[in-house]
Amino acid sequence: MNTKRNSKLEIKQRSEESTQGLKLRRRKTQKTQEEKVKTLAFLAASVLGLCRSVAGLGDNIIPENYTNHFLPRPADGQPVQVGVGWHIVRLHEINVDDMTIMMTVRVNVAWEEDRLQYSGDLHRGHHSRLLPLDLSLLDRLWAPDLFFMDARDMATMAMMDEVAGLWLTANLTLMYSFMVRVTLDCQMHFHSYPFDHQTCKMMITSYEYSTGDLQLRWLGPGVTVNHRLHKHMPGYELTIATGNISSQAWCREKDCPIAPSSAAMGYLELHRRFSAHLLTLYIPSALLVGLSWASFFWPPEPVPGRTVLVVTSLLTLVSSYAAARQSSPKTDYVKAVDVWFFVCICLNIVTVFQYAAIILLRRRQKHVQQMVVQPARSGVKESKSHLERLKERERQVEIWARVILPVLFLIFNLVYWSYYLRHRKGVDEEEEEE
Q: Is residue 62 in some structural domain?
């Protein structure tokens, strides 16, 4: 009996302890939730206050005597330092006929505006580095008049609003970033097509201000590119290079009335991938040339078969060259692919003339044989010797054709591939002017 009573007391005591523990946990959970609610309310109030402060910041930081037509002159009288940089987001089209490149670029521009009235008290929390401003303030502030020098067309991007942003740093530096679709002119040279290497220039400069008023500098790495862009360019390999800060002269005269402007230069290097051209142009055309040479090992008696083989190879080469001309860039000068097909067609034509020479020698042999079988006629010995000379000449033509033409084609390949693979830029330096 005592054992049963003790067990009941222990069970009752454990249940009371578990009940008290559950109440304590509920109180702690309720207290934690109340603290979270207070924290969120504090953060919401802080963000709302910061937003209200930022919303009214534009009217407070611009002085009454501020003029956006004059650039902010530093105290030391030096030119205004404007930082630039751009990131190539997407390369949409490379038009070799118009010699243009269409791309989407994110441009970043930064300059110091010490005329603003701002103490930096709003730079806290998430906005400790960059404080967002309303884009409408840009119409009331001075901004550098930068543009892409060789742009044929430019269009800013917008969806629900313009894809752009304006920020302010604690040291009164304005940062403006925007997305733009640019169609850029690019002077292309196709002397080495399809082994060509194109270099396209992207230059940002100022139209109004000279180097004495405005000086450009690079922001960070300068020119960058989307690392996934190479997957969307099956025909080219893209390389980006950041150039130096130079000057853009607007005229070449010594007494030019317009002073040169500061310019930031970037380079897009496009290396054409030619592996597809090897499989579709070069290897098939080389095989057609070799196929025509198979006629050298056939007896000359079956004239139709040997003629059809040589002529068919020649016509196929000509049609392949016509198709290659349709897909290659339209130029008025000779390209590498033109040189290749010209030599291949010439070798096939030589094969046709070689077989024509064999047929001519055979006809002369028949004529001489008719003279030999006529015993009444004089000069039979001379006819026999002449017949032997014709047969020997026929053998020499066949042997020389089997040896000389492949050797010439081999030498041509060595010169062709060594030259164009070393000179892949395809730039006529005599015509190119910086």
A: no
* Two tokens, residue 319: 């049609």
pTM over 0.90: no
- Total domains present in the chain: 2
Give residue for tokens 């207070």.
Answer: 38
The answer to whether residues 291 and 313 touch, using CB atoms and an 8 Å cutoff, is yes
Q: Say how far apart CA 216 and CA 143 lie, in whole Å.
A: 13
Place of tokens 């884009």: 135
Amino acid in position 202: M
384-411 residue pLDDT tens: 565 666 666 667 777 787 888 899 999 9
Tell me how far apart the alpha carbons of residues 297 and 294 are, in angstroms, rounded to a whole number: 6
C-alpha span between 197 and 425 (Å, rounded):
4
Where does a domain end: 243, 273, 303? 273
**Cis peptide bond upstream of 194, omega within 30:** yes
What does the alpha-carbon distance between residue 293 and residue 271 come to, in Å, rounded to a whole number?
A: 35
Per residue in 312-347, pLDDT (tens digit) is 889 999 999 999 999 899 888 999 999 999 999 999
Cβ neighbourhood burial of 190 (10 Å; 0-12, 13-18, 19+): buried
Establish if 308 belongs to a structural domain.
yes
Range of 109's domain? 80-273
Three-state DSSP at 343 gives helix
